[in-house]
Write a structure and sequence with these properties.
TPR-like_helical_dom_sf, P-loop_NTPase, disordered C terminus, 24 helices, transcription regulation, BTAD, alpha/beta, globular, three-stranded antiparallel beta sheet, 565 residues, five-stranded parallel beta sheet, single chain
């Protein structure tokens, strides 16, 4: 951070925490002004996480330092106020109440904090407490300063006395309006998650879903591997956008990742029933039923969430046709043949987001006093949202456990996925459906990867592994990537051989399958491969390693291929 210069020393501004804090605060304000609340929330959380106490608390260097400390303290308070304002706009009223009460005790005359607390209490269904907060503020101001609350606070007080609801914040796009009298608006969304961690996916999709100048139905998608938090993100976004779709919100779990996905006709019937369409008048054939669905939405602003779609064919007849309505689809498949307004590949969390989730579930103090171990838990979970939530749930259920205890269990138990199961939640459930849909030769290759410990690999076109009954390894790797069991991490230029990466938890699952299903040939080949110290060097000699194991032996799948893998 410090470099020597002629005549003295110089701080590198970009590496100073106060400089980073001010840049993040400014970026958050820009995101908020654009209506991208999730982006603003992420940057505000990162900015405030840089603080570890009062500025310059261990320095006594005169008035200049004291003035700078006061300036930074004021900016920190501004950031806290902006954070609560953004959280209110996102609907996190209960969380705001818990955060504001200790702040008010520390800053008893800061009226913005009182105003936010009044709003949060009122929106949480606690209007009497909200009015009591105003009375408390008014009494303190009269006693300390002999003044009345600011006009903004007084206006909010009068609004709380009125039966009309107040809306806080907005997202760019069509303004909300009321549902016409006599028309029932279905509201089928699952409950939102109070400790949802903001992500860029919602910032990307919200403008596409609410843009007022579009000429076709907004069809958006959140795709990604199992356990990445696609459903939670879609439901959270749908709740945020409810005011823009006053004619209803439909939700259908299509079960695409299960062995028995729902039939599109059954999904259509479910949505038509919610829209008060008489089932007795439903025509024959899915095409005619889809036309009835589109006709039922004519002139209506309805948001539809199609969760866990299996493929394009399952959702093609479930899309509205009117410009006023919008759709959010989640799927493990990439769904590239549908006409999307916007599609986002939803990935693992960042380390910062993972720690934010731990803090929201377990409390800031419990995480920060064991921060290094918390980071290690996040790393061992691969920052996969479902794994992180399970880890947090297990720690919440066992208050006597530390993060270090969980690290030990994840690294020393023979089956680490046992530690990532809690009640109905299980990381295995993310990978099992994809594995069971694989052809047997692809399963053999997947188990081989788990046994070998190889995490990064590639194969030129035409590579064969006859000993494992894999006729084209390159295509098999592509199929594993299509099912989200592998991730493409590098493609290079035209004609380059792509490289694939095996997530740590997926590798653990592959080892579990191999323990019960692998053949002796697979085990012997993997054992040979594990003896190679350099894992990068292991990749091009995998067939040769299998060949050495089988030398002089006739395998049931024929001669061993010699192409490099």
């Amino acid at each position: 951070m410090i470099s020597t210069q002629p005549g003295g020393y110089r701080l590198v501004p970009a590496e100073v925490d106060s400089e980073q804090f001010e840049k993040l605060l400014a970026a958050a304000m820009r995101e908020r002004d654009k209506g991208y609340l999730d982006g603003a929330a992420v940057r505000l959380e990162r900015a405030l996480s840089l603080w570890e106490g009062d500025a310059f608390s261990d320095a006594d260097a005169g008035d200049c330092v004291a003035a700078e400390a006061d300036r930074l303290a004021e900016l920190r308070l501004v950031a806290l106020e902006e954070q609560t304002d953004v959280m209110l706009a996102m609907g996190a009223h209960a969380q705001v109440v818990g955060r504001l009460k200790p702040l008010i005790e520390r800053y008893p005359l800061r009226e913005t904090l009182y105003r936010h607390l009044m709003s949060a209490l009122h929106q949480s269904g606690r209007p009497a407490e909200a009015l009591a907060v105003y009375a408390d503020l008014r009494a303190k101001l009269a006693e300390e300063l002999g003044t009345e609350p600011t006009p903004d606070v007084q206006r909010l007080y009068r609004a709380l006395l009125s039966p009309q609801p107040k809306h806080h914040g907005s997202t760019a796009g069509w303004p909300p309006f009321a549902t016409p009298a006599g028309r029932r608006a279905p509201s089928q969304l699952p409950g939102d998650i109070a400790d949802f961690v903001p992500c860029e996916t919602t910032d990307v999709l919200a403008p596409a879903l609410t843009a007022s100048d579009r000429t076709a139905t907004a069809v958006t998608a959140i795709t990604g591997q199992g356990g990445a938090g696609k459903t939670a993100t879609a439901v959270h976004l749908a709740h945020r956008l409810r005011p823009w779709f006053p004619d209803g919100q439909l939700y259908v779990d299509l079960g695409g990742s299960t062995r028995h996905p729902i039939d599109p006709a059954a999904a259509l019937a479910q949505m038509l029933l919610a829209l008060d369409h008489p089932m007795s008048a439903l025509p024959e054939g899915i095409g005619a039923q889809a036309a009835c669905f589109r006709d039922s939405l004519r002139g209506r602003r309805v948001l539809t969430v199609l969760d866990d779609a299996a493929d394009e064919a399952q959702v093609r007849h479930l899309l509205p046709g009117n410009v006023e309505s919008a759709v959010i689809i989640t799927s493990r498949a990439r769904l590239t043949s549908l006409p999307f307004t916007s599609r986002v590949e939803h990935d693992e969390m960042s380390l910062h987001q993972a720690l934010m989730l731990f803090r929201r579930v377990l409390g800031i103090s419990r995480v920060d006093r064991d921060l290094a171990a918390a980071r290690e838990v996040a790393r061992l979970c691969g920052c996969l949202p479902l794994a992180l939530r399970i880890a947090a749930a297990r720690l919440a259920a066992r208050s006597h456990w530390s993060f270090g205890d969980l690290v030990h269990r994840l690294t020393h138990r023979p089956r680490p996925l046992d530690e990532l199961t809690h009640g109905p939640l299980s990381v295995r459930s993310c990978f099992a459906p994809a594995y069971h849909r694989l052809a047997e030769d692809d399963r053999r290759l997947f188990r081989m990867l788990g046994l070998s410990g190889v995490r990064m690999l590639s194969a030129p076109p035409g590579t064969e592994l006859p000993s494992l009954a894999v006729p084209d390894v390159a295509e098999a790797l592509e199929r594993l990537a299509d099912t989200r069991l592998l991730k493409v991490v590098h493609t290079g230029g035209p004609g380059a051989v792509p490289r694939f990466w095996l997530h740590g938890l997926v590798s653990a699952y592959a080892r579990e399958r191999a323990e019960t299903e692998a053949s002796e040939i697979e085990r012997a080949a993997a054992q040979e491969l594990r003896r190679l110290e350099d894992r990068e060097a292991a990749v091009p000699v995998l067939p040769a390693a299998i060949g050495r194991v089988l030398a002089g032996r006739h395998g049931s799948w024929g001669p061993v291929g010699r192409e490099p893998l």
